[in-house]
């Protein structure tokens, strides 16, 4: 995509730091300059500017949600494993899950580690599984493909529904 930005030579820059001409008589501007609120400068690039994500990019927020989702998946994997070979640890983990939310994965695991030494071992196992699942088993390409497909199908469905609602039907003629 061709960029609309052009490169200026140093002689074309406005003189930002030059002193006013003292011989002109009018040294100060006619009206006082009001301080403006800071507005971030938008860079010209081929990516969309997304307002409202000052503290983090949309990708960063999505990564945070995936991070918490990986914790959820790891807990599900570990509970399934424990259910078959260690019913006592399974019950302990299920009781802990009843008392603590999994919305924030790191907070959940930190609480689990501090509960008892047995819970600490469970937390370490969940940490291992979370890392292994993220690195080896999660299908990143499939995620991208599915996200594209969902957006495309959803956009088509919404536009089709709108057209159906707003277009006159054959029975109305």
UniProtKB/TrEMBL annotation:
The keyword Iron-sulfur does not apply. InterPro entries: Chaperonin_RbcX_sf, Chaperonin_RcbX. GO terms for biological process: carbon fixation; photosynthesis; ribulose bisphosphate carboxylase complex assembly. The keyword Transmembrane does not apply. It holds the Pfam family RbcX. Keywords: Carbon dioxide fixation, Chaperone, Photosynthesis. GO terms for molecular function: protein folding chaperone. This is Chaperonin-like RBCX protein 1, chloroplastic. It comes from Cucumis sativus (Cucumber). The lineage of its organism: Eukaryota, Viridiplantae, Streptophyta, Embryophyta, Tracheophyta.
